[in-house]
Design a protein that fits this description.
Blueprint (H helix, E strand, L loop, with lengths): L9 H34 L8 H35 L4 H11 L4 H38 L8 H30 L4 H41 L6 H7 L3 H23 L9 H30 L7 H33 L4 H18 L1 H15 L8 E4 L3 E7 L3 E5 L5 E5 L6 E3 L5 E9 L5 H18 L8 E8 L4 E9 L4 H19 L11 E2 L5 E2 L1
Antiparallel strand pairs: 1-2, 1-5, 2-3, 3-4, 6-8, 7-8, 9-10
């Protein structure tokens, strides 16, 4: 140390730091040489030859441990002396004063403590190895439970993360013990302990996520395996769709919980940790609301569509009212959830509700057409003017009703276009789907036709139509001769059919009549054009 007396300033401290690093490296290199010499002597003993492979593994791991300790020691030397330089403390004088304070026998105690650390590392190595083996056996038993296969991947991920948590946690404990044993500064040990706690919080949070995934996968597999023994098929099919949402919500809750605990460990952001419980409650309220919506939808389906032997009109009423009922209940549930979320955020919902009521009155006074549409929609529903599946005709559209909402109705015309009508616009309405309707077909025959034969052929055709088409409710009725045309006698036929089927039945009946007339030789007259040629090449029609 006396050779540095002639050097002044920071240069003296820097040279001392470099010397300390070189000394630390030489000490660990000497320790490595000693380990290699001891290994060579021990392997020369005859009865230890059978443990040669295992001893080689131990030697390599001790060598790596010495390398890691050497690196950590150099980092600690640089960090501590850098801190001294930052505090404008003379490194040389500080080092000399520390060496003067070293009591007799310190180096013997230091070597003893290093030996303790090495022994603790060896013990930790075997403990970790034994625990990992036990965890692998526990993993195999978990995968063999009930011989389920769909949850194997999630179980493997859980135990893989558990193994890493066990391994790294124990090594961090070894590092803390080594730092405390080897007289590291209390500040460094404190930072290492905070780092250890943060690692544990994050790792345990991720482990809980993997555990929850494995439990959910196992529950799903058991449900698929045993659902037929219970009477909850409908409940399972409906609620199983919530499993992905449940997983995501559970993951977000765990992440928020872990982040809040991490913030508590760091003083400069600890004030934000109080928002964690509120966010967890909001996530829980959202999931509960979503689950209640699914349960309510299932109950609505069961009670409003519970019988298979209901009439077609009752089925149409159910198909019309069920979506509206679900929408109203769904909005009510989400509104209640929104109120609870406001409570969690310490916001009084009453002023907001009062303001929403006043705003609703103002909007209602300025939206007369909207109110008219809603009122008309209620009358359409409660008076059953038309239902989903009915074939109707209004002033602007004609087709099958696809949906009825509180404000609008949707009609699909035969050409495929979708007409969206405001309920307040529907004035004149024709419904072809009330109990029955008529398929009216008019056909013309020549003036010289035998009407009795024509009526007989039409009757046979109507009988065939009734036998082949289930939409026909009664046999075709030939009304008789409707009118005398310019070149034809117009005959009117009426067939009673199911609601909304008149166009399809009319199309089919016309085809059958054409084939029957061709077979019986009955002429269907058509317009003819006569051209007269004059000498002056003028044409006259």
């Amino acid at each position: 140390m006396n050779i540095l007396l002639n050097v002044e300033g920071y240069t003296q401290g820097i040279i001392l730091i470099i010397g300390e690093i070189i000394l630390a490296v030489l000490i660990f290199v000497l320790a490595g040489v000693i380990v290699r010499l001891l290994y060579g002597r021990l392997t020369s003993i005859s009865f230890l030859q059978k443990y040669l492979d295992r001893s080689e593994v131990i030697r390599k791991r001790i060598t790596w441990l010495l390398v890691i300790l050497c690196i950590l020691s150099c980092i600690a030397i640089l960090g501590y002396n850098g801190w001294l330089l930052y505090r404008r403390i003379d490194v040389y004088q500080h080092t000399v004063s520390m060496l003067d304070k070293i009591p007799p026998g310190f180096w013997q105690q230091l070597l003893l403590r290093v030996a303790k650390v090495i022994g603790f590392v060896i013990i930790a190595h075997y403990v970790i190895r034994t625990m990992l083996r036990l965890l692998m056996k526990l993993q195999e038993r978990s995968k063999a439970f009930e011989r389920l296969k769909s949850n194997d991947e999630s179980i493997e991920k859980f135990f893989s993360r558990l193994c890493r948590l066990t391994k790294y946690s124990l090594w961090l404990l070894v590092l803390l013990y080594a730092g405390h044993t080897l007289y590291l500064p209390p500040a460094i040990i404190g930072y290492l302990f905070i780092l250890f706690k943060i690692y544990l919080i994050i790792s345990i949070g991720m482990l809980i996520v993997e555990a929850a995934t494995a439990v959910v996968d196992s529950f799903e597999a058991l449900s698929r395996k045993y659902w037929y023994r219970e009477s909850y098929e409908d409940w399972y099919n409906r609620l199983s769709g919530l499993m992905p949402l449940f997983r995501r919500c559970l993951e977000y809750i765990i992440y928020v919980w872990a982040a809040s605990l991490v913030m508590l460990q760091l003083s400069f952001i600890s004030q934000f940790a109080s928002y964690g419980p509120a966010l967890v409650q909001i996530i829980g309220i959202f999931f509960i609301a979503r689950m209640v919506v699914e349960i309510v939808n299932l109950l609505v389906d069961k009670f409003m569509f519970k019988a298979d032997d209901i009439s077609e009109s009752q089925r149409q009423q159910s198909q019309t009212l069920i979506p509206i009922t679900k929408s109203i209940l769904q909005y009510g549930i989400y509104f209640i959830a929104f109120v609870f979320i406001l409570r969690v955020l310490n916001i009084n919902p009453l002023p907001l509700l009062a303001g929403a009521g006043i705003l609703g009155i103002v909007v209602g006074l300025g939206a007369q057409s909207l109110i008219n549409d809603i009122v008309a929609g209620f009358f359409i529903l409660f008076e059953s003017l038309f239902l989903v599946g009915d074939y109707i005709e209004t002033g602007t559209a004609r087709g099958i009703v696809e949906a009825i909402h509180i404000r609008t109705s949707r009609i699909r015309d035969p050409d495929g276009q979708l007409h969206i009508l405001r309920n307040g616009q529907i004035n004149a309405l024709t419904n072809y789907s009330k109990e029955y309707t008529f398929a009216v077909v008019e056909v013309g025959v020549a003036y010289d036709s035998d009407l009795d034969h024509v009526f007989h052929v039409l009757g046979e055709t109507g009988q065939q139509l009734k036998e082949n088409n289930t939409d026909v409710l009664d046999q075709m009725n030939v009304k008789g001769l409707k009118e005398f045309g310019e070149s034809e006698l117009l005959i009117r036929t009426v067939t009673k059919v199911r609601p909304g089927c008149h166009f399809q039945v009319a199309f089919e009946l016309r085809t059958m009549i054409k084939k029957a007339f061709d077979r019986e030789g009955i002429e269907i007259p058509f317009a003819r054009r006569v051209v007269i040629l004059k000498k002056d090449n003028e044409k006259e029609i």
